[in-house]
Amino acid sequence: MSDILYEGKSKIIYRGPNNESLIIRYKDTATAFNGEKKAELSGKGKLNAAISSLIYGYLAEHGVETHLIEVIDDATALVKKAEIVMIEVIVRNVAAGSFSKKYGVPEGTALKNTVIEFSLKSDELGDPMINESQITAIGLATEEELKEMTRQAFRINELLCALFAKTGIRLIDFKLEFGRYDGKLILCDEISPDSCRLWDIDTDKKLDKDRFRRDLGDVLDSYQDVLRRLQNVR
User: Fold this and answer.
1) Which end of the chain has the lower number of beta carbons within 10 A, N or C?
2) Which sign, positive or negative, has the C-alpha torsion 220, 221, 222, 225?
3) Cα separation, 156 vs 59, whole angstroms
């Protein structure tokens, strides 16, 4: 493997074979509460890599440009070297997690419309919520970029809700990251049970990172279940 450029909570970023690419390796580390809770779950990295690869392939088939170039092995991918926009885009279909706590909406309540939120991508500051005028005021993104990220977020949500519904999974909410590449915004990072809330449609069983956050157990079994379901419909 080439030189390490960055190591985060769940991934290691390496220098790519050329100036236009990077290599991402998924780690087995599980974290929650901005890294305060941490554990090594053998095989988690491979599961997230496989799930994200399947989802990115599906999105690409439907016209969404992503950073994924190719899968190198079961925990490693070659990706486009994009300039990451330091904003996380959060898409909510159902009240859960911090949304329920902040606004007093019972968890599991279907929202009357899809909610788009932004947070500053900063572990040091705890990824605080940030609004559009604050984003443009400090130069994180332009108004046009915000509109494009929002447009893509709605489209990705539509596609993912349809995909997961076929697997018997309800897409509660999820996080997206975008990067600037070749004059446009493309989808970056990952889409996996680490970055989504996924509930079984019939039982409401949580199949995502909340199993780790809330000490529900069966974390890897639930991730494996998500992968199996996606493989069966892809």
Assistant:
1) N
2) positive
3) 7
Pairing of strands 76-80, 68-73: antiparallel
Q: How sure is the predictor about 36, in pLDDT bands with cuts at 50, 70 and 90?
A: confident
For residues 59-86, one letter each, b for 16 or more C-beta atoms within 10 angstroms of the residue's C-beta and e for the rest, the string is beeeeeebbbeebeeebbbbbbbbeebe
User: Quick count: other Cβ atoms within 10 Å of Cβ 186?
Assistant: 18
Using alpha carbons, select from 215, 214, 152 the residue that is nearest to residue 179.
152
Look at the block and give the residue holding tokens 């926009």. Answer: 85
Task: Specify the pLDDT at position 1.
Answer: 61
Residue 132: which pLDDT band, with cuts at 50, 70 and 90?
Answer: very high
Structure tokens at 202: 């019939």
What letter does residue 106 receive in the DSSP assignment?
P
Nearest to 93 by CA among 145, 43, 188, 157: 157
Region label for 43, one of left (φ > 0), alpha (ψ between -120 and 50) or beta (otherwise): left
Model confidence band, residue 204 (pLDDT cutoffs 50, 70, 90): very high
- Exposed, middle or buried, 200 (CB in 10 Å: 0-12/13-18/19+)? middle
Dihedral sign from CA coordinates of 108, 113, 114, 116: negative
In contact, 54 and 74? CB cutoff 8 Å: no
Using only the alpha carbons of the chain, give its radius of gyration: 17
User: Three-state SS string across 37-80, please?
Assistant: EEEECCCHHHHHHHHHHHHHHHHHHCCCCECEEEEEECCEEEEE
